[in-house]
Amino acid sequence: MTSEAARSVTVRVPATSANLGPGFDALGVALDWTARITVTTGAPPRTPSDDPVVAAIERMAATAAAALFEAAGERTDTVDATYEGDLPVGRGLGMSAASRAAGLVAANRMLGDRLGAEALVPLAVRLEGHGDNIIPALFGGLQVVVHTDSDEGHGAVHVPIAPPDDLRLALLVPEFSMPTEESRRRLPATLTRQEAVANIGRSALVVAALTQRRYDVLRVAVEDVLHQPARAALFPALYPLIEAATEAGAYGAYLSGGGSTVAAFVSPAQAEAVAAAMGRTAAAHQLQASTRVVALSARGTEVVDG
Ligand code: HSE
User: Fold this and answer.
1) 130 pocket-lining for ligand 1 (C-beta < 6 Å)
2) CA 100 from centroid of its chain's CA atoms
3) Which sequence spans correspond to the domains of the chain?
4) Tens digit of pLDDT for each residue in 219-231?
5) Residue 267: is the preceding peptide bond cis (ω within 30°)?
6) Measured from the CB, is residue 16 less than 6 Å from ligand 1?
7) Does residue 152 have a pLDDT over 70?
8) Which CATH code for domain 7-162?
9) Which atom of ligand 1 is nearest to the CA of 92?
10) Whether the Cβ atoms of residue 266 and residue 132 lie closer than 8 Å to each other
11) The domain 168-295 belongs to what CATH superfamily?
């Protein structure tokens, strides 16, 4: 791919919600809220977007694509990316993972899909640092992810679960962002055995609840002592929002990824009422935010053109 003619591949990539409460770095699900990213090689370099958010997304996608070309032993003159969509950045909806997944899948298509989808996982996890957003972004569905980092590199074992079709997520998306790296630095370095047991059991219970459609246990299952308490220090309205969602009929609610979005598992019938209740609580806390109801999606990153 040296001195090549310009070539573009466009992919559709989903937002993702990670952790699902207690499953820190281990559980994530793709959402039916998507963006399009086009990766182009061999064209004159583009001027970065004036919008710093768009510029950051495009840079992450292009960097991921370039990393895949390098890993495959291919040299490219220029790699650029363009973004179309309304996925918010820094809100715990996996925008960095979506950008990187898009770059990897588009670059792989340019290589004639030389690498199988699973072969993208080590690079995806290395770029992202954790797999609970990027693996559902790549493959879709609800993914159970365990990192298998070793001296040889980054890896992950993951198993998909078909997302239930009778469940929605009501999202409260604040205007303020919570950069993941910054909030991860605030997390406790150690847990007591009691705390570890609480999260291990609940993480398994989330999977059991979603596979067996036992939504009645989700309220307990989504409780967390590993990351939400520390992150609530940055986001005082978090627990009032979770409480408002459950009082309005949600099965359970949690901080999506590293925040700031609060996600509530709901039935389709309750979805709008729960979203509205979270919206009122946000307003009562002087929190600028929007709401959205999304379905869980079995679809990961897909090439739509090229
Ligand atoms: N598991 C990651 C975290 C997800 O909580 O930091 C980030 O979206």
Assistant:
1) yes
2) 11
3) 7-162, 168-295
4) 999 999 999 999 9
5) no
6) no
7) no
8) 3.30.230.10
9) 8
10) no
11) GHMP kinase, C-terminal domain (3.30.70.890)
